[in-house]
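Continuing the series of single-chain predictions for the mutant panel. This is the parent chain; the variants come on the following pages.
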Amino acid sequence: MVARLTEPHAVTASVGDPPRRRSRPRHPASTGPAACCLLSHAQRSAHRLPLRLTEEHLEVTGPSHATVAIEWSNVARAEIRGRLTSVLVVEPVDPDRTRPPLRRWQWAGHGRSRPYELVVPLAGMTPGRGALRRELARRLA
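Parent structure:
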């Protein structure tokens, strides 16, 4: 079955199938490795520095661009989940000791099971997950 382009938004098959319409025409650069690089660059610029480690605390930037600082002694759990789309999951011991204090379910979203769980996407971050794991292990030990 060979498809041929008959109008900008329609594709028909030579067998006589009815035309299938797309919502918009596909740009030649919208697929393939170039699109992945563009998406990766867009993700990095949209999520610039969502995470900062200092000697005193861990700073996390959320989806609404609000920054929360958690002292290292107040971190109950910090782990990296996922391989393809990895995220950092942080949970404070006492949400009232964070700056600003966390409200219950403030960072709630799809897949969150705990009321004070903070989930930060790590897509396109440097130096990488391995270095972040080592640094978190060193600071939380």
